[in-house]
Design goal:
By secondary structure, the protein is an alpha/beta fold. It is 39% helix and 13% strand. It has 20 helices and 15 strands. The strands form 3 sheets. A 5-stranded antiparallel beta sheet has the order 2-1-7-6-8. Strands 3-4-5-9-10 form a 5-stranded antiparallel beta sheet, with no helix packed on it. Strand 4 and strand 5 form a beta hairpin. The radius of gyration is 23 Å and the shape is globular. The protein starts with 12 loop residues before the first helix and ends in a 13-residue tail after the last helix. The relative contact order is 0.15.
Amino acid sequence: MTTLRTNVLHLRAVDEAALDATHVLRLPCLIVESRPSGTVARGDAEWSAPEQPNGVGAAGWHWDGERLRAHTGRYGFRPLFVRRLADGVALSPSLVRLMSIGGSLPIDDRAMAVFLRIGFFVGEDTPFRDVRVLPPGGRLEWRDGVLSIEATYPRVGMSTMPRAAAIDAFIDVFGDAVRRSGPGGRRNVVPLSGGRDSRHILFELCATGHPPERCLTLRNYPPRGTRDVVVATEIARAVGVTHEVVEETPSRASAELRKNLLTHFCADEHAWFMALADRLSGHDMAVWDGIGGDVLSNGHRLEASQLALARAGNVEQLAQTMLDDGAVRMAPPAMAARWTRELAVARLTEELRHHLDAPNPIGSFVFWNRTRREIALVPFGIWNAAGCVITPYLDPAVYDLLASLPAEMFIDKRFHPDAIRRAFPAHAYLRFDTETGLRPVRSPNGTPADAPYYRRLLRETGAYVAGLRRPRLIRRSWLAARCAYWYLRGDFSDAQIVPFAVYLAQLDGVTQWCENRDPELGAAADHS
């Protein structure tokens, strides 16, 4: 097979630095096309990601010279991107790598209309009309110019188990999942917050006689504050495990640039995890991640009003409640006219309908969209360099139990705390980060001590956006005016949308660079 070469000629230095730091252009890629002379394949004929514990499953593809087959795991949490070509298909575990083979990449207006209002893509959407991810349990086949894709979503029925029995069952299956997911010869590390999911993992590891070598806690960017550090310190001290606090990357803008590449331009969150990724990089560790725990066991993002709309089948009204138009303000008028709220409602309504018959329709939507399409990009994207990521809440027995419980069991947000305190009564006194006294009332623009952080973010974001040639996706004049207002007034109440400016400018710049590349071998070409 031919190696697909890439370089970063004709790209801005700051973007070149981000691409070089993330290594995304070195990831596998395969292009298969039908031509008059026959089928031509270029790139990696075979690739597979390592199998992970807990039923996450592998992802990969195989080209035998006649037929291309690709697959994803049970949940589709490890993304595999598929780009439709005029007479073929291209595959890669990296969206940016697929972009780099060149050619036009039209923006998917429906997908972007949703993303800018909720911060993640739904279904199999990406920023581009011709690129999708393989679905959960996905199976792809391409042969003689014909492409077929199938999905297998796990389905569960409604459980009639009483709450007390459900908590006992959860304690048992989760303990079994942790015991069956031993790290082998690797060292255990637990990224520890002040919440429930990582705490439960830590307690189970200690109970099985395999405590982690250390716990790591991020000191988050403003305005979140230090509550995770305060509570995680108390938890680690209680079980006698070494605890380290990891300071954030000083430049939030540079963290955003790297994060956007590692998360395939599919997440508005996670820049804060770059510091932890740097801390874990190069070490052969077993990192225990609590992904899925908050949604499956404690009703994260589940509100009674939204559940009532789902139960009544008022899907369009439900979609309206999930959308925030704030970030759309920075789009140029031409793009804002395409990324309308009406378009977002229609796409979100379409996706929500798939989850109405689930025992927990809101939880099902959040798990298969936000958790799969955004949160999963931390353990299966940002942390890939850590060695092995273990995700016990995705164990099939844990998922099947929790997904079968009715949403009403999680409305009060007490199911998981009650389970932890019942399973580990010796640690029942330890508080959670959401409890009274730990979440002080703060202004949206943080404390006066946070002002230097915000002003640096505004300066660096403004400089990055100003350096973009021929911007298509962002309204520089509006952003410059808002940044000046926030900077001079010290009012950062709307500054949470600034990372969207970095996102849009970087997506715009990298897309324009990729479109001016030669599809043959993915080598850079100057078409100026």
